[in-house]
Amino acid sequence: MNKLIITAAVCGAEVMRRHTPYIPLTPEEIANEACLSREAGASIVHIHVRDQDGNPTQDVKIFRRVVELIRSKYPDVIIQVSTGGAVGMDAEERLQSIYSHPEMATLDVGTTNFGDDIFVNDMPLIRHFAKKMSETNVMPEFECFEIGHVHNALKVVKEGLIKGHLHFDFVLGVPGACTADVRNLIRMVDTIPSNATWTVSGIGKHEFEMAAHAIAMGGNVRVGLEDNIYLSKGVLAKSNAELVEKIVKMSREIGREVANPKEAREMLGIK
Question: Rounded distance, CA 208 to CA 211, Å?
Fold first, then answer.
């Protein structure tokens, strides 16, 4: 079994200070959380950014500042930016983040219900994002909220818009989307090519349950305050690093070692 790649999703677009006082908002806070997560065992840091009022933004200048701060301390960690942004943003606004020179970016490959909202990702948008990522040499991580999204991802690959190693993130437990059930996870894993890699993101209370399944199945894990703010029931995580440390411990207790950034790069085909 390959070593475990851990992704730390440090702030997202939805969690605010009213939800937890520990969510990072400024570029310095976000970069610091990313670096602490790297120290705790994460090889990939998944980045959203906020404006001066703490609201989600895709401002490329803010992304560049965060990327610069992270790389000044840990040039080895894989930086993955979000092109999802926040519900309601238009395509060009969402795409700004890839011009901050990350190694990876998320590519949402299907429209989904997102709580009371609709997160729109139609095929023309998916193709457009895929082309831009290829042009900028940014590796996509296919974000799949439903099993049909896997087929959309494979469609753009078949069309030649994405080449190289394929990596998927199965986001399970979003209200309105695919539930966090191991049977759903198995079905999605069985749908991707055998030489692809995959990660699972369990949302909210499902984070550690889905992580346990992924660790045992040979997949990889995403954790972080974007997806879940609790270390255990009723106990707020004080940092992303605490969540990463819990995954490291879970994995090592069953005998699976954790990949460092160099190893993760080799596994994902990132130079």
Answer: 5
Indicate the SS3 state at residue 44: strand
Dump pLDDT digits (tens) for 113-150.
998 999 999 999 999 999 999 999 999 999 999 999 99
Nearest-angstrom CA–CA distance, 115 and 204? 13
Give the C-alpha separation, 214 to 205, whole Å: 16
CA 182/CA 88 separation, integer angstroms? 31
pLDDT tens-digit series, residues 55-106: 999 999 999 999 999 999 999 999 999 999 999 999 999 999 999 999 999 9
For the chain, the domains span 6-268
DSSP code string of 179-214: ---HHHHHHHHHHS-TT-EEEEEE-GGGHHHHHHHH
Count of beta carbons in the 10 Å neighbourhood of residue 129: 26
Q: Please, what CATH class does the domain formed by 6-268 belong to? A: alpha beta
- Sequence-ordered list of residues with C-beta below 8 angstroms from that of 102, at least 6 positions apart, any chain: 47, 63, 67, 79, 80, 81, 138
For residue 23, give the DSSP letter.
Answer: -
Whose structure tokens read 């943003």?
89
- DSSP H helices in 123-198: 123-135, 147-158, 182-191
